[in-house]
Specification:
globular; Glutaredoxin; four-stranded mixed sheet; 2 domains; Glutathione S-transferase Yfyf (Class Pi), Chain A, domain 2; binds S-Hydroxy-Glutathione; alpha+beta
Length: 220
């Protein structure tokens, strides 16, 4: 592992990996990117994340940090001298940022997965449930530019990678997320204006193609 102080074990399509890529880009941290194969995990991944055996893993000076939201907070602290700060300075707003990042973790991933793993009535219920979750985020945004406070930060980083899935969800669920959640749609655009975000996220159409391929393999 000689030579690189910062290594990221990742997968290009991963929403969780994207969070880490965005945080590293925001802080201007140079790193070595290593693409993993989930059906053939590297010995390094198994050694660095023996508990979950999942990407992303950030390896800093040979030591691993796991779990995307924890990694983002670590990056913010380890490179605290680099601007911008990814957490608000006010403790209350910091708690809010953590609350919304946690909300995204608990509601968005599973909610979206339910839409693409169900059919008929079950899918209709999953769509409604997911839209309700997005509406909560729409309400949290209100007239603010970002999810918490006035600056792009931790909660935004937790959520923005999932916007890549909107195109696929609209297609398969016959939904129109942008129309139903205009503030969220404007927030996605605002975030995408940051190079750290636009360069870290996979193309939404490519994700859709991959999704269709995966469905085909599963025979759905
Ligand atoms: C989730 C990481 C994860 O699911 C985080 O980092 O925030 N809570 C974690 N990683 C997936 C790939 S992205 O869907 C993964 O590595 N899966 C491998 C496996 O389950 O074997």
């Amino acid at each position: 592992m000689a030579g690189s102080d910062v290594i990221l074990l990742d997968l290009w399509i991963s929403v969780f990996g994207a969070r880490v890529r965005i945080a590293l880009a925001e802080k201007g941290v140079k790193y070595e990117y290593r693409e993993e194969k989930l059906d053939d995990k590297s010995p390094l991944l198994l050694e660095m994340n023996p508990v979950h055996k999942k990407i992303p893993v950030l390896i800093h000076h040979g030591k691993p940090v796991c779990e995307s939201n924890i990694i983002v907070q670590y990056i913010n602290e380890a490179w605290h001298a680099n601007s911008p700060p990814l957490m608000p300075s006010d403790p209350y707003l910091r708690a809010q940022a953590r609350f919304w990042a946690d909300f995204v973790d608990k509601k968005i991933y599973e909610g979206a997965k339910k839409i693409w793993t169900t059919k008929g009535e079950e899918q209709e219920a999953a769509k409604k449930e997911f839209m309700d979750v997005l509406k909560v985020l729409e309400g949290q945004l209100g007239e603010k530019p970002y999810l918490v406070g006035e600056r792009f930060g931790f909660a935004d980083i937790a959520m923005i990678p999932f916007s890549v899935w909107f195109y696929t969800l609209n297609k398969i669920g016959n939904m129109n997320i942008e129309k139903e959640c205009p503030k969220l749609a404007a927030w996605v655009k605002r975030c995408m204006e940051r190079e750290s975000v636009s360069k870290s996220l996979p193309d939404a159409h490519k994700f859709y193609e991959l999704f269709l391929e995966m469905q085909k393999k599963k025979g759905q």
